[in-house]
Each structure stands twice: as structure tokens, then as C-alpha cells.
Amino acid sequence: MACLLCSVGAHAAPIEVRVPEGYTHGFVDFFAGRKVIAHGELLQFPRDGQVENRLTVSFDDGSLHDETVVFTQARVFRLRRYHLVQRGPSFPEATEVTFDDGGSYRASIRKAGEEEKVAEGHTEVPDDVYNGLTSTLLKNLAPGEAGAVHQLAFTPRPHLLDAKLVPEAEERFYVGALERTATRYRVVLKVSGIAGIAATLIGKDPPDVTFWIARGPAPTFVKFEGPLFADGPVWRAELGVPRWER
Predict the structure, then answer these.
(1) Looking at CB atoms within 10 Å, which of 18, 39, 113, 213 has the fewest?
(2) Hey, how many other C-beta atoms are within 10 angstroms of the C-beta on 171?
């Protein structure tokens, strides 16, 4: 535990590529407590010197979470384009966000019974902004290493968030009779700059989320716990297991 916590004070910087990304096709189940509430599909593939990663989550109540990230991995990871859609009764707002590494963005938010709020224009996007890439970054941290990066949040105007990637503990998990170990990481999000001081004082920083990453020569995501939107409920995501009957 002391080894895990010794490097928490990392400085924000792009994350070095240790485990290059390639073709991936997987499934994930979402839970509220013990109840399954949604099923997701992850597709990732290289294209024209970039990597496209798309997570589509379909909820049992008809809601949708659809997140696409395009990134490069030449020495360090760099986000190039990002697109998020959230809609349906599981979300208090219908949201669509698009931005790129050049700083162009458009964000729209519509609450039920209210007019749509839209913001678009140009914002600064630091080299270490990594929306949608948290599990990828965690796979590339050395054992016991912490990271510090940024994310962008939209309300609908953009706000820069500090994101600390903090290793907390090693935990055993089981697949049948197989026993393996995963590192539990806490992702701590705070609003940057002077606005962040005010947010902390009034308790409006985004909630923390937790990831579990299985280590070894081929590190992989195994579990997530946290909200998918501000002030949302804590949901759990785990790798899905295919069934052959409905």
C-alpha cells in the first residue's frame, strides 16, 4: 500500500504510451446495485494513423450513452476528436458534446420542459485533455504510478477539470477457479483555476469515479464504479458475458 500511495503527487502531463492500442471488440454490463440496467458494446480500431474508440450503452428504459473518441499514440496519447450523446429517462438532461484538439466545440443541453441551451466556439484544449480515455491511460501507468491530466466538462460552456489518477490498492478477483489481481484507481476530478477554488468551497466539484485494471503484460479494464453525469447515481460496469438464449 505504501508503494501504491507514494507517487500521488504527479504533475499534469500527457501520458506516455507503454501499451499501444489496437483492435478491440468487447461488451460491458451496467448495474444499479445488483440490478442490470444497461448493456454496452465497445468497438476500437486503427484508421488513417489514428485510433477510433466507441462505447455505445443501451439502457433497458430506452436511454442511450454514446461516446466516440479519436486519438493518436505517437510516444504519448493525444485526443483528436470527441463526441458524446446522452439522452433518455436515465439522464436528467439530453446532452450532445463535440470538440477537437484544435479547440472547436459545440455543446447542447436540454432539460425536460426547458429550452435547449447551446454553446459553441473555440476553447483551449491542453495536450493532456483525455475525455473518454481514462481506462486507456490507467493501463499505461507503471505499477504504483499516479497520473495527473485534464478533462473538459460542458454546462454547456466548457470548463477545464483537473483529473488525478490515484492508485489505491491491489484487489483479488476471480473468473471461475482462476484468481487474478487488479489495481483499484480513484479518479479525482476538480474544476481548474480560480473557478475551482469556488467550486470546492461550495461542494460542486465533480464526483470521483473508480476503475479496476488487471495488471500484467496485457493490462485490461475489469470494472468501473461511478456516475456517468454530474450528481448522477453510482453505477457499476463490468465485462459482459455473452448468452446464447434471450
Answers:
(1) 113
(2) 13
Q: What is the pLDDT of residues 143-161, one digit of tens each?
A: 999 999 999 999 999 999 9
**51 is written with which cell numbers?**
485510433
Q: Is residue 244 part of a domain?
A: no
DSSP output for 119-155: EEEE----TTB-TT-HHHHHHTSPTT--EEEEEEEES
For the entire predicted model, the pTM comes to: 0.89
What secondary structure does DSSP assign to 148-191, as a single string? EEEEEEESSSEEEEEEEEEEEEEEEEEETTEEEEEEEEEEEEEE
Q: For the chain, how many structural domains are there in total?
A: 1
Which set of grid coordinates corresponds to residue 148?
495527473
Q: What average pLDDT does the segment 85-103 reach?
A: 97
| pLDDT score at 193 | 58
Cβ-contact 58, 74 below 8 angstroms: no
What secondary structure letter does DSSP report for 92?
Answer: S
- The answer to the question of residue 223 being in a domain is yes
| Element spanning 192, H or E | none
Amino acid at the residue 113: G
Write down the number of H helices and E strands in the chain: 3, 14
The long-range contacts involving 91-100, CB below 8 angstroms and separated by at least 24 positions, are 91/63, 91/65, 91/228, 91/229, 91/232, 92/229, 92/232, 93/229, 95/154, 95/229, 97/154, 97/156, 99/123, 99/125, 99/152, 99/158, 100/125
Place of cell 505504501: 2
**Is 245 among the domain residues?**
no
